[in-house]
Amino acid sequence: MANGDFLVGTVDGNLICMGAYRKVDEITAEIKRIRVKTEFQGRGYGSQILAALEKSAEYRGYTRLILDTTSRQIPAQKLFLKNNYIEFSRRKYDEMELIYYCKILKNN
Q1: Class of domain 5-104
Q2: Residues 6 or more apart from 65 whose CB is under 8 A from it?
Q3: pTM confidence score
Q4: Strand order in the sheet with 14-23
Q5: At 75, which helix (H) or strand (E)?
Q6: CB atoms within 10 A of CB 77
Q7: Would you kindly state where each structural domain of the chain is located, as residue ranges?
């Protein structure tokens, strides 16, 4: 992907986690689809995928990352806060509350 990246993590040849990002504008990328297979959650794979996505985005010249999750996704919220993402907005979407986060990356 020229303006983003899609990464997967495997254990013994089995897909256990994934994540991606896409271009929003010249300095901003949006993290999408971070997933860890249920039986592998809580072992640091989410943090590893997130760190690899951040490194890839920084390499491509992005200086700001944004992402969202829902208020029901407590493990995701904890992951993003632990990795220095700052909540900047909330809004209702149907019955869900969406939470938006941002992180400024180091300058290249």
Answers
A1: alpha beta
A2: 21, 28, 29, 30, 31, 53, 54, 57, 85, 102, 103, 105
A3: 0.91
A4: 5-11, 14-23, 28-36, 64-70, 96-104, 86-93
A5: helix 74-82
A6: 17
A7: 5-104
